[in-house]
Amino acid sequence: MLQPRKTKFRKAHKGRIKGSAKGGTTLNFGTYGLKAMEPERITARQIEAARRAITRHIKRQGRLWIRIFPDVPVSKKPAEVRQGKGKGSVEFWAARVKPGRIMFELDGVPGPIAAVAFERAAMKLPIKTKVVARLGDTTHLEG
Q1: If you write DSSP's letter for every residue of the chain in order, what string do you get?
Q2: Which terminus of the chain faces fewer neighbouring Cβ atoms within 10 Å, N or C?
């Protein structure tokens, strides 16, 4: 599971995910990519599930890049605990993803295989996504 080795602060504010992605909006490594179309927090478990779905479908050929990292600690209080007494403990780590952000990139596999692999990965993610290709060819996927 992805998580930072060390952070400046143990707990973070929730915040809001406003606007579209400032960077990471173009393909830098692979030929095909999975782009986020909605703002959302994506957990380390969801990233790992998507990674497994992609690598299993491409049968470990080609190369996969994960362009997001879960660096935001999300805290939660236990069930049936009264308010007050401070902030809850860190439950999981999440990545804040803005619309337009490339989350995964693939190279070394044919286009149709990459599209199906990303479609399976999109099922594991809580947002709508789009498959983008370096060639300019785009396939819309609802996920």
Answers
A1: ----S--S-S--------S--SS--S-SS-SEEEEE-S-EEEEHHHHHHHHHHHHHHTTT-SEEEE-----EEEEEPPTT--S-SSPPEEEEEEEEE-TT-EEEEEESS-HHHHHHHHHHHHHTSSS-EEEEETTS-EEEE--
A2: N
Q: Is the pLDDT of residue 137 over 90?
A: no
Give residue-wise pLDDT tens across range 35-53: 999 999 999 999 999 999 9
pLDDT digits (tens, 9 = 90+) for 99-114: 999 999 999 999 999 9
pTM score: 0.91
Six-digit token string for 46: 């969801």
- Tokens of residue 103, six digits: 């989350």
Those residues with Cβ within 8 angstroms of residue 118's Cβ, 6 or more apart along the chain or in another chain: 32, 34, 54, 104, 106, 129, 131, 141
